[in-house]
């Protein structure tokens, strides 16, 4: 006699069929599984979870699993991260007193079987190996926490983003109500452009027209007579 549909769906258990993803975006982080991102230039499969005692646990993201719960009123989905956790005991994790640099021994694994966490509980980290050739540093990785894409680690001046609001609305008015408006200015642009046809030398000359039948005008006859006189 459970009235809450979500509680009833959780009590019935998830579906046996699950969906698995190679990458997942949550909390401003773009996570990749180790198999999907191991050959990429960036490391997106480092994960970190903070326990109730404020202790950080570091691991490698292996699988992204989507579980589906069927209720009477709807279908509910949840995303789980399956991770391979490293041992966070004092002998396997060091924190520099001055620089707060975290080092983990990636060869030492968490002794208990507790690989699954909810996706929204995880933050992203990346691991950097030491470039030293000393054998005592081969098993150690330096841990760096990444910033979420939705966060900007910079001061924001809110006063710059504020603008004064103008409540005066734009209205239409007559032309004579506009300051420095002269109605006579509208007639200054009424000019007629006259074109002249170029002469034989390419210079502008007088424009000559023909009648409707296509015959030459009297001026054209005079020019033709002058041409024969020259010959």
Describe the structure.
With 231 residues, this protein is mostly beta strands. It contains 3 helices and 11 strands; from the N terminus they run αβββαββββββββα. Strands 1, 4, 5, 6, 7, 8, 9, 10 and 11 form a 9-stranded antiparallel beta sheet that branches. It has a two-stranded antiparallel ribbon with strand order 2-3. The protein is flat, with a radius of gyration of 42 Å.
Q: What's the short story on this structure?
A:
Helices cover 11% and strands 28% of the residues. The N and C termini lie far apart (123 Å). The radius of gyration is 42 Å and the shape is flat.
Tell me what portion of residues adopts beta-strand conformation.
25-35%
Beta-strand segment tally: 11
Average of pLDDT: 77
Rounded radius of gyration (Å): 42 Å
Instruction: Name the shape in a single word.
Output: flat
What is the share of helical residues? 10-25%
The helix-strand sequence is HEEEHEEEEEEEEH
What structural category do the secondary elements indicate? mainly beta
Residue stretches low in confidence (pLDDT < 50, at least 5 long) are 207-214
Biggest sheet descriptor: 9 strands, antiparallel
Number of helices: 3
Give the end-to-end Cα distance, rounded to a whole number of Å. Answer: 123 Å
How are the SSEs placed, and which strands pair?
Blueprint: H1 5-12, E1 19-21, E2 23-26, E3 29-32, H2 34-37, E4 46-50, E5 56-70, E6 75-85, E7 93-95, E8 102-105, E9 116-118, E10 123-129, E11 140-145, H3 218-230
Which labels suit this protein?
single chain; 231 residues; mainly beta; nine-stranded antiparallel beta sheet; two-stranded antiparallel ribbon; 11 strands
């Amino acid at each position: 006699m459970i009235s809450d549909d979500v509680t009833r769906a959780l009590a019935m258990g998830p579906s046996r069929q699950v969906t698995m993803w190679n990458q997942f975006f949550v909390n401003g982080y773009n996570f990749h599984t180790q198999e999907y991102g191991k050959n990429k230039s960036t490391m997106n499969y480092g994960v970190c979870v903070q326990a109730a005692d404020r202790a950080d646990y570091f691991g490698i993201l292996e699988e992204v699993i989507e579980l589906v719960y069927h209720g009477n009123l709807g279908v509910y989905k949840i995303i789980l991260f399956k991770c391979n956790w490293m041992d966070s005991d004092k002998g396997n994790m060091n924190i520099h007193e001055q620089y707060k640099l975290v080092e983990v021994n990636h060869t030492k694994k968490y002794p208990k079987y507790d690989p699954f966490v909810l996706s929204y509980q995880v933050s992203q980290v990346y691991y950097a190996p030491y470039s030293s050739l000393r054998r005592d540093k081969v098993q150690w990785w330096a841990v760096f926490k990444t910033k979420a894409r939705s966060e900007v680690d910079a001061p924001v001046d809110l006063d710059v983003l504020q603008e004064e609001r103008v409540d005066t609305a734009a209205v239409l008015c007559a032309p004579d109500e506009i300051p420095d408006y002269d109605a006579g200015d509208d007639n200054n642009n009424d000019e007629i452009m006259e074109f002249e046809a170029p002469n034989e030398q390419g210079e502008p000359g007088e424009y000559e027209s023909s009648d409707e039948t296509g015959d030459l005008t009297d001026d054209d006859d005079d020019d033709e007579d002058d041409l024969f006189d020259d010959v």
